[in-house]
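Students often ask why we bother encoding 3D structure as a string. The short answer is that it lets us treat folding as translation between two languages. Here is a chain of 75 residues written in the first language.
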Amino acid sequence: MSRASVVGVYNETSDLWLEGIPNVYNSNTWKSCHPYIYTNGEWRPAGAAGTLMVPFITSDGNYFYTSDGKMFLVR
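And here it is in the second language, the structure alphabet:
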């Protein structure tokens, strides 16, 4: 069994991020899918962690970045 992709959907009314498993509607039925995002000239899987990931924020309220300049995400 493969892990389901999970994406975050922001609900502005409740000011919360909700976990969502993406599906597409095709031929009168909902089907699971593996979403991809195009960035920096290549397609990359989205939501592959299988859980909602959020940015790590330091004690002074700033985002934490890794040594290669990528945002550090936690679950």
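Translate back mentally: The longest strand covers residues 7-11. Keep this in mind for the problem set.
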